[in-house]
C-alpha cells in the first residue's frame, strides 16, 4: 500500500493516494444528553490582594455544563460593613465590562466536537494562578474586582434564564501587605559606625494582622535569616489594613560590611509580597560599613628589651598602626615621655599615620616612652603590648696601658715593647698607634675588632737601629669612636741596637719545582743583617736523610748558596726541605732562627711517545683517496707534550701537541710515518726511539662496463640491442669492479618521453649487476648509466655509452561496443542501415589475420572463419549465416596476428565477445477475465517475447508507449475511463504486433457523507430525538454498514454499542431518528461496481518501486 507504482498516465503513485480514503466516508454525528449546570467562585482557593498601582483583579468562576449569560456579585468594604457595592453583568456586557470568558475547545455548543470529553490545560490568568486541569464540559469566566473587600457571587443565569447552582461564592481581597526599613534620617550608606557600636532600626509594616516579616542579615559572605511574627495592634479593631512600627536592635560586634534586607511580608490571610514586588518608595535593604578599631604598639622595643644609644646622639623608635580602615585615616598616636629618674614627664606631639604601616619617631633623651592612645577620623583605637619603650644611654669607654720591654735572652738586648692594654666599654674595641724613629713618623697602624677587654700589643722596630717612640693615639668601642688616651700613660721610648739576623728569599709560598733536566743542585738567595762576617747553619731534609750545611765567613748581606740535592731525591725524585737553623755575626752573638722552610719537589720522569693500535702493527692501513686516517699515539710525562713526526717519503717534519695521554695523528698521504722527538711541558726531552708506523695505502676506485654481448656499438656511441616483442623478457649483466656492495645508478627513457624518466638504481653484492630491460610500452627504450657506488667510493660515469632497444607492439582486436544487437528470427548477419553493427577495432601493423567464431547459446557447435583484414577497422559480416533459432547468439574473437609476427596480447579490459538477441513475435495477454475495474485496482498483463517490450495503449484519447523490462506488465487505475492496448513490440521495436482485443473500463469508488462531511455535535434533553442523515455517491443500488459507539474520551475511540447493514438501497440518501447518546458513523459503502474500503488484492502483482 505504501510502495510507489506506475499508473495508466505513466506517473508513479501510491494506491492509498489514488483511493483517497478521507473522501469516501466523511463526517460523524454525535448526540449528547445535557447534564446539571454548576458554578464555583475561585475554584483553586487562591489568595488575592490589591497591590499599589493595580486597578482591578480578575477572579475565576468555574462553570460546568453551561454557558453563563449574566452574573451578579457584590463587594463589601473591609473598613465599613455597610458599604456594599452590587454589580450585574449581562450578555451584552461580555468583553468590555467585568466579565471575561475563557473557554476550552468544545464550548459554546456549536463548537462541540465528535470526540468524547477530554481533560485540557487552561493557561494561568494575568495574576499568575496555577493552571487548572479542565474537562471539555467545564469552562472559566473571570469577574473583575476594582476595590478591596469581601466579594460574594450572588447569582448566575444561563441562556434560558435558568439559575446555575453556586458552590463556594465568597472571597476576601485586602490591600497587599507592605513593609519598609527605617534606620536613620540620612542615607543608609552614609551612616558612620565603629566596631562595637549599636543602633536601632524600625520595621514599618502595613496590612491585615497578624503580620509576619522575613528579613536577613549578611556578614562576611554568610547570610542569616531573621523573622518577626505575630505583628498586631491589639487596640485597633478595624478589619482593614493597619500600619504598625516594630523596633529592631541592630548590633555591630565585628568590623566589616553588614547588609540588612527584606525577604517578604505576609498578612493574616496568607498574602505574601516578596522583596521584588514591594513599592519602589520603600527601603528594602541597606548596607552599613563598620570600621575596625585601629591598634598601635612598639615593634622592636619594650621595658624587657630596651633600646640604647650613645650620649648626645639620637635614635629612631619604630611603632606600627594596624587593623584600621582607610576611610578612618589619618590616625593620631599620643606618646608620653618620663625621664630615667621619674621626676620629669611631658606629652610629645601626636604622631600622625596616613596609612597602615610602621613609622619611626626620633628621640634624643633616655627614659620611658609610653603610648597613651590612638584615634582615627571616626573611631578610637586600642594600645597593645608593648606600650612602653625604654631608652638607655651607653657608658663611655676608657683604657689603661702598661709597657713591658722585650729582651733577646741570647744577646741581652731590647728588641721592642709589649703593651698590655685593659679596656672598659662595649666590645668590639679598636686602637690606633704611631711609631717614630729619631723624631720622624715611620709607621701608623689601626687594629680593629678587638673582642676582649684585655689585649697585648707587640711593638717591634722594623727600620733598623735607632731611637724609637711608640704612641697610642686613639681608641674606641662599639658605641663611641675617636677617644683620646692620656698622654703620660700612652707613650714609650726605646733605643734599638743592631743584632744578627738572616732569612731565605722565597719566590712564592708554593714548593719549588725541579725537573728531569734541572741538574743536581739548587741555588737559594739569603738576606743577612748585623755586622759581617756571618756564619750560617742550614738543614737539608729528605724522606731518607737529614744533613746540616754550614757556611762561614760570609761578607755580603745578599748571598747565594748552592744546595746539593739529597742522593735519594736526586736519583728517583721526590720532596725535600731547606731550613735556616742559626746565624752568628762578628760580635759572636749567635741567634737561633725559626723561619718558614722552603720546600722543593723534584721530578725525574722523562716523557715518552709511541704508536699504538693499527699504527703499531705490521699490516697495511687502507684509506680512501681524498680521505684521511688517524694514527693513534700514546704519551707519558708532564703535559702538554709536543711530538715531532714525519712521512718517510717526503721528509717534512710536523709538530703535534698532546694534552692527554693519547692523540691521533691525522694523515692523508700514503707511506710510512716516523716519530722523531718528544718534549714535555718543561722543555725536557724524552724517549721515542724514532718508531716507524705501519704502511698507509690507497684503496682502488670501482668501475662499471657493458658486456660485449650487450649489442652492437654504432657511430653515435650508442649500443643497439636486438628488438623484442611487447611483453617479452630480456636483461643485461653489467661488469663491475671494486669493493662490494655495489650500487649502479641509471636512467630508463622512452623515446619522446625523456623528461618523465625517473632515476633508478640496482644493488649487487657480486662483481656483476643485472638490468631487467622493460618490454612495455612499445617504442625505443634508452638505458643510460650515470654513476655507481661501492663500499668506499661514489663516482660518476659520464663517458659510458647508452644502450638502445626497440620494443615491438603486440597486435590486439576488440569490439568497439558491448551493446547487445537485436535481430529477428531468420535474419542474416549482415551490415544494416539505421541499426548498430558489430564493429571490430584492430591495433598493430596491418594486414591482420583475424579468426572469429559464432554460436547459439543452446548449441554446442561453433562456426569458425579466418579473415584477412587490411585496415585497422572492420564491420563483421557473415552473409551466409542465418539466425534459425531464437535466443542469444555470441560472436567471439579467437585470435589475431599482425605483420610483425608478434603474438597478440589479450586484455581483460577489451571486448572480445559480442552478443546478439534473436527474438520471435511479441504478444500481450490479460491476467484476469473481467473488463470492469475500480479506481485503485491494478491492471495486469503477461508479455510474450524478449525483454524489453514497448506497449502502445490509449486511455481516454491519450496514447502512451512505455517500455517494460519485465514479462508482467501492470498499471494502477488512478481515475475513471477506458483503457485500450493498440500494439506491442520488442527488440528495439524491430518486431511489432497489432492488438485489438485488450480493453478495460475503470469506475469511480462510491462515497458516504454524514452531516455533511464534518463532525457535528448535537445536545438534546432526555425524551428528545435527533435526526441522522447519510448521503451517497456512485451507481445504485447501495450497500452500507453504520454503527453507534460511545463518545470518545481522552482521544481514545469509544466502545461500539450497535452495528447495522443495509443492502439494495436505490436512493442516494438515508434518514433515521434516535434518542440514544453516542456517535453515529458509516464504516462500509458499495455501489453497483465498486466498494469502499476496497478488497485487498489476493493475486501477485509486479510492482515497480522507487
TrEMBL record:
Residue ranges annotated as coiled coil are: none
**Domain Nucleoporin POM152 Ig-like, first and last residues per copy:** 293-389, 607-692
| Nucleoporin POM152 first Ig-like domain: residues covered | 38-167
Question: InterPro entries under this entry?
Answer: Ig-like_POM152 (IPR056541), Ig-like_POM152_1st (IPR056542), Ig-like_POM152_9th (IPR056543), Ig_POM152 (IPR056544), Pom152 (IPR037701)
What GO biological process terms does the UniProt entry carry, in alphabetical order? nuclear pore organization; protein import into nucleus
Q: Superkingdom of the source? A: Eukaryota
Cite the GO molecular-function annotations of the record: structural constituent of nuclear pore
Q: Which GO terms describe its cellular component?
A: nuclear pore transmembrane ring
Q: Which residues form the Nucleoporin POM152 ninth Ig-like domain?
A: 923-996
Q: Which Pfam families does the record match to this protein? A: Ig-like_POM152, Ig-like_Pom152_1, Ig-like_Pom152_9, Ig_Pom152
Nucleoporin POM152 immunoglobulin-like domain boundaries: 395-498
Q: Write the protein's name.
A: Nucleoporin Pom152
Q: Which organism is it from?
A: Calocera cornea HHB12733
Amino acid at each position: 500500500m505504501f510502495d510507489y507504482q506506475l499508473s495508466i498516465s505513466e506517473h508513479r503513485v501510491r494506491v492509498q493516494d489514488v483511493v483517497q480514503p478521507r473522501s469516501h466516508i466523511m463526517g460523524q454525528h454525535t448526540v449528547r444528553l445535557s447534564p446539571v449546570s454548576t458554578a464555583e467562585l475561585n475554584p483553586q482557593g487562591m489568595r488575592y490582594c490589591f497591590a499599589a498601582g493595580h486597578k482591578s483583579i480578575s477572579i475565576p468562576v468555574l462553570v460546568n455544563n453551561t454557558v453563563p449569560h449574566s452574573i451578579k456579585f457584590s463587594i463589601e468594604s473591609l473598613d465599613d460593613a455597610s458599604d456594599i457595592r452590587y454589580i450585574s453583568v449581562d450578555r451584552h456586557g461580555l468583553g468590555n465590562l467585568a466579565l471575561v470568558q475563557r473557554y476550552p475547545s468544545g464550548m459554546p455548543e456549536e463548537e462541540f466536537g465528535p470526540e468524547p470529553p477530554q481533560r485540557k490545560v487552561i493557561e494561568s490568568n494575568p495574576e499568575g494562578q496555577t493552571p487548572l486541569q479542565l474537562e471539555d464540559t467545564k469552562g472559566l469566566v473571570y469577574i473583575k474586582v476594582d476595590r478591596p473587600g469581601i466579594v460574594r457571587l450572588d447569582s448566575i443565569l444561563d441562556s434560558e434564564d435558568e439559575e446555575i447552582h453556586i458552590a463556594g461564592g465568597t472571597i476576601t481581597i485586602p490591600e497587599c501587605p507592605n513593609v519598609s526599613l527605617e534606620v536613620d534620617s540620612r542615607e543608609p550608606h552614609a551612616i558612620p559606625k565603629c566596631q562595637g557600636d549599636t543602633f536601632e532600626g524600625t520595621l514599618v509594616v502595613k496590612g491585615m494582622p497578624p503580620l509576619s516579616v522575613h528579613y536577613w542579615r549578611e556578614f562576611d559572605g554568610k547570610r542569616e535569616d531573621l523573622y518577626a511574627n505575630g505583628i498586631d495592634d491589639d487596640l485597633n479593631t478595624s478589619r482593614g489594613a493597619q500600619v504598625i512600627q516594630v523596633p529592631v536592635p541592630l548590633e555591630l560586634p565585628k568590623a566589616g560590611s553588614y547588609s540588612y534586607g527584606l525577604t517578604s511580608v505576609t498578612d493574616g490571610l496568607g498574602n505574601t509580597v516578596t522583596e521584588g514586588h514591594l513599592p519602589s518608595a520603600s527601603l528594602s535593604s541597606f548596607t552599613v560599613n563598620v570600621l575596625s578599631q585601629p591598634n598601635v604598639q612598639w615593634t622592636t622595643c619594650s621595658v624587657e628589651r630596651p633600646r640604647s644609644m650613645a650620649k648626645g646622639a639620637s635614635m629612631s623608635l619604630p611603632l606600627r598602626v594596624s587593623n584600621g580602615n582607610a576611610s578612618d585615616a589619618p590616625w593620631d598616636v599620643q606618646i608620653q615621655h618620663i625621664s630615667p629618674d621619674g621626676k620629669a614627664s611631658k606629652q610629645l606631639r601626636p604622631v600622625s599615620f596616613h596609612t597602615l604601616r610602621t613609622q619611626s619617631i626620633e628621640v634624643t633623651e633616655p627614659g620611658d616612652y609610653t603610648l597613651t592612645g590612638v584615634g582615627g577620623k571616626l573611631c578610637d583605637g586600642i594600645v597593645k603590648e608593648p606600650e612602653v619603650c625604654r631608652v638607655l644611654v651607653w657608658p663611655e669607654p676608657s683604657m689603661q696601658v702598661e709597657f713591658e720591654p722585650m729582651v733577646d735572652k741570647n744577646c741581652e738586648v731590647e728588641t721592642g715593647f709589649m703593651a698590655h692594654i685593659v679596656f672598659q666599654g662595649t666590645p668590639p674595641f679598636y686602637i690606633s698607634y704611631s711609631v717614630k724613629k729619631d723624631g720622624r713618623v715611620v709607621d701608623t697602624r689601626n687594629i680593629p675588632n678587638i673582642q676582649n677587654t684585655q689585649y697585648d700589643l707587640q711593638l717591634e722596630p722594623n727600620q733598623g737601629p735607632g731611637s724609637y717612640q711608640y704612641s697610642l693615639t686613639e681608641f674606641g668601642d662599639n658605641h663611641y669612636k675617636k677617644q683620646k688616651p692620656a698622654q703620660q700613660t700612652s707613650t714609650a721610648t726605646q733605643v734599638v741596637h743592631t743584632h744578627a739576623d738572616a732569612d731565605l728569599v722565597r719566590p712564592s709560598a708554593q714548593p719549588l719545582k725541579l725537573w728531569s733536566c734541572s741538574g743536581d743542585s739548587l741555588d737559594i738567595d739569603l738576606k743577612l743583617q748585623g755586622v759581617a762576617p756571618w756564619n750560617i747553619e742550614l738543614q737539608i731534609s729528605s724522606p731518607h736523610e737529614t744533613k746540616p750545611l754550614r757556611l762561614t765567613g760570609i761578607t755580603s748581606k745578599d748571598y747565594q748558596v748552592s744546595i746539593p740535592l739529597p742522593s735519594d731525591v736526586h736519583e728517583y725524585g721526590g720532596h725535600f726541605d731547606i731550613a735556616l737553623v742559626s746565624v752568628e755575626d762578628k760580635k759572636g752573638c749567635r741567634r737561633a732562627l725559626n723561619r718558614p722552610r722552603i720546600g722543593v719537589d723534584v721530578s725525574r720522569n722523562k716523557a715518552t711517545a709511541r704508536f699504538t693500535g693499527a699504527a703499531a702493527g705490521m699490516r697495511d692501513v687502507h684509506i680512501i683517496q681524498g680521505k684521511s686516517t688517524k694514527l693513534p699515539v700514546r704519551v707519558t710525562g708532564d703535559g702538554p707534550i709536543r711530538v715531532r713526526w714525519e712521512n718517510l717519503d717526503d721528509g717534512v717534519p710536523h709538530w703535534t701537541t698532546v694534552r692527554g695521554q693519547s692523540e691521533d695523528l691525522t694523515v692523508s698521504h700514503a707511506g710510512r710515518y716516523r716519530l722523531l722527538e718528544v718534549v714535555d711541558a718543561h722543555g725536557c726531552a724524552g724517549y721515542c726511539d724514532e718508531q716507524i708506523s705501519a704502511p698507509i695505502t690507497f684503496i682502488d676506485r670501482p668501475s662499471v662496463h657493458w658486456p660485449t654481448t650487450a649489442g652492437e656499438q654504432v657511430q653515435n656511441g650508442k649500443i643497439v640491442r636486438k628488438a623484442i616483442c611487447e611483453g617479452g623478457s630480456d636483461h643485461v649483466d653489467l661488469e663491475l669492479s671494486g669493493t662490494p656492495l655495489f650500487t649502479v645508478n641509471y636512467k630508463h627513457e622512452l623515446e619522446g618521453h625523456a623528461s618523465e624518466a625517473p632515476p633508478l638504481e640496482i644493488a649487487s653484492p657480486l662483481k656483476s649487476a643485472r638490468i631487467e630491460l622493460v618490454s612495455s610500452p612499445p617504442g625505443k627504450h634508452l638505458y643510460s648509466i650515470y654513476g655507481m657506488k661501492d663500499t668506499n667510493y661514489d663516482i660518476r660515469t659520464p663517458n659510458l655509452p647508452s644502450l638502445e632497444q626497440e620494443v615491438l607492439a603486440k597486435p590486439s582486436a576488440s569490439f568497439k561496443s558491448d551493446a547487445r544487437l537485436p535481430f529477428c528470427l531468420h535474419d542474416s548477419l549482415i551490415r544494416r542501415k539505421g541499426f548498430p553493427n558489430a564493429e571490430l577495432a584492430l591495433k598493430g601493423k596491418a594486414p591482420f589475420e583475424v579468426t572469429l567464431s559464432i554460436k547459439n547459446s543452446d548449441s554446442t557447435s561453433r562456426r569458425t572463419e579466418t579473415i584477412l583484414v587490411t585496415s585497422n577497422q572492420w564491420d563483421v559480416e557473415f552473409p551466409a549465416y542465418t539466425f534459425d533459432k531464437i535466443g542469444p547468439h555470441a560472436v567471439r574473437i579467437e585470435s589475431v596476428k599482425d605483420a610483425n609476427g608478434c603474438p597478440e596480447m589479450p586484455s581483460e579490459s577489451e571486448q572480445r565477445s559480442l552478443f546478439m538477441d534473436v527474438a520471435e513475435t511479441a504478444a500481450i495477454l490479460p491476467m484476469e477475465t473481467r473488463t470492469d475495474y475500480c479506481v485503485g485496482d491494478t491492471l495486469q498483463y503477461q508479455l510474450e517475447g524478449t525483454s524489453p517490450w514497448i506497449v502502445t495503449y490509449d486511455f481516454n484519447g491519450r496514447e502512451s508507449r512505455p517500455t517494460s523490462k519485465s514479462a508482467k506488465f501492470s498499471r494502477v487505475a488512478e481515475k475513471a475511463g477506458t483503457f485500450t492496448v493498440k500494439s506491442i513490440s520488442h527488440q528495439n521495436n524491430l518486431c511489432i504486433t497489432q492488438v485489438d482485443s485488450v480493453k478495460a473500463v475503470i469506475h469511480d469508488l462510491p462515497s458516504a457523507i454524514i452531516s455533511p462531511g464534518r463532525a457535528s455535535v448535537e445536545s438534546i434533553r432526555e425524551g428528545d430525538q435527533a435526526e441522522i442523515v447519510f448521503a451517497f455517491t456512485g451507481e445504485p443500488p447501495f450497500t452500507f454498514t453504520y454503527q453507534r459507539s460511545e463518545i470518545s474520551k481522552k482521544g481514545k475511540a469509544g466502545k461500539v454499542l450497535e452495528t447495522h447493514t443495509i443492502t439494495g438501497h436505490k436512493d442516494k440518501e438515508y434518514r433515521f431518528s434516535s434518542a440514544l447518546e453516542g456517535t453515529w458513523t458509516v464504516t462500509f459503502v458499495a455501489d453497483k461496481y465498486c466498494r469502499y474500503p476496497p478488497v485487498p488484492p489476493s493475486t501477485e502483482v509486479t510492482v515497480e518501486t522507487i
